[in-house]
Amino acid sequence: MAELEADHDHQHQTTKPKKHVAVLPSPGMGHIIPLFELAKRLVVFNHDIHVSFLVINTDEDDSAARDQYLHSHSTHPPGLDVVDIPPVNVSDIVRDDMLILTRICVMVEESLKSLKSVLIKLGKPEALVIDLFCTGAFEICSELSIPVYSFSSPSTAFLTFSLYLPTLDREVEGEFVNLPEPISIPGCSPIRPDDLLDQVRNRKNDQYKWFYLHMSRLPLAAGILVNTWEDFESVPLKAIREHSFFLQLPTPPVYPVGPLIKQDEPSSSSDVECLTWLDNQPADSVLFIALGSGGTLTTGQLLEMAWGLEMSQQKFIWVLRKPDDADASSTFFNVGSDVNDPKSYLPEGFLEKIQGVGLVVKSWATQVAILRHPSTGGFLSHCGWNSTMESITHGVAIIAWPLYAEQKMNAAMLTEELGVAMKPVKGPGETVVRREEISRVVRLLMESEEGEIIRSRVKKLRDSARRAVDNGGSSHNSLSCLVEKWKNEIKP
Ligand code: UDP
Prior knowledge:
By secondary structure, the chain is of the alpha/beta class. It has helices at 4-14, 29-45, 64-71, 100-111, 115-121, 137-144, 156-171, 206-216, 234-242, 244-248, 269-279, 299-312, 350-353, 367-372, 385-393, 407-417, 435-447, 449-469, 474-488; strands at 19-24, 49-55, 80-84, 127-131, 148-152, 223-226, 254-256, 286-290, 315-320, 358-362, 376-381, 397-400, 421-422. The protein has 19 helices and 13 strands. The strands form 2 sheets. A 7-stranded parallel β-sheet has the order 3-2-1-4-5-6-7, sandwiched between helices. Helix 15 (385-393) links the parallel strand 11 and strand 12. Helix 4 (100-111) crosses helix 8 and helix 12 (299-312) packs across helix 17. The structure holds uridine-5'-diphosphate (UDP). Uridine-5'-diphosphate binds at residues 28-30, 33, 262, 290, 292-294, 319, 364-365, 367-368, 384-387, 390. One of its GO terms (molecular function) is UDP-glycosyltransferase activity. Residues 1-20 are annotated as: Disordered.
């Protein structure tokens, strides 16, 4: 990544007359990827815009996958500069027992101490687009008279819940997860307490306090960009724009600009091996298994998954990580750098048994290239929002395996509202999903008529997603409208 000074000089040599927008993601691939794709879309489709992509660096965040993605020339068009925020040491503040969002927020808070000087050195951009957990930027940017736009990397349904949270917090005593009825968000589909996001499941912990703090500041944004599109989430989008509850907050204008997904990605030799193997498989015949950047299974669940896949007799590619019995998101900050030798934890004889049928990839794969491949017909996914957008955009049906954050909400939407996913179930009193159930659901998705119906539904959504981002489509228009606003904004 370029140093701040060098990037600043470069900007002045090559892009002086352009409007300058800065983009600030929180740590974590699920935040970095959609905002980097937004930055790319801004410079590729709007040649009058120059983007500085600000990267938070701490000693607690060591992801090889992140560095490779941000460094790769294929993902780095002219007009887009990657700018390192001066690194901070958070090892004295971050504790091992901190939950994932608390860690993110602590890293962000420390890093933003230098945001003001970074923005001044960059010549005060016309606008700053921030991730949901970077709201410390509001105060700093108000001193510099830079308008701040929030970017919701999860769904609009998540956004409506987040906007409603301060009201819920005032009205409900005790834990939300203990409520006897689904939670009604004005104008939106109710959320079952069981499906609530991790961040609000325990109101006494720090994670909840951070989440509440950032979400309660959403109304301060000049606008909110969402990684979704009009036809896909028409109900919550209508609610946000028209329901009296959201109007009185007041809710800033919402810009659905998605799906924003990775276009090109750097590939390693194992990725090339995967794609070549896929070339030799029949259409829609391969199941891809990946659990986002953080997702890990317990030792017991990994064993069941391995034998369940083998029992299903379906072709598969499995992105494998060392099991973790304590934390379902254990590779979130070090994905691609994690120590990982599948032979040391896979059941004996498994790799031999699956030869020719399944491929195992360590830690990280070129997910989008695999989903885009015509041989891929199913995706066992943790239902992170980026993975959801990527699967739908490539017309791949889903087996929902939610693990952390808001993934249970996403899984409910995919299975119950949209009918593009199936969900395996645990037996009564079981702590893992058994191999027989995994095998049953995999076969159902890959071989049955029901699986075909799901695939045809997801292919319709794929077409709708493509229309949205095409020239003249709803997301294209929404982004153009925002860019026009930025272009017309006069610098104070
Ligand atoms: N991803 C990838 N290869 C992998 C695992 C994940 O490229 O082996 C990418 C995936 O394509 C997606 C992102 O990492 O863009 C994960 O984001 P998501 O919102 O799905 O989940 P999170 O990591 O935030 O839980």
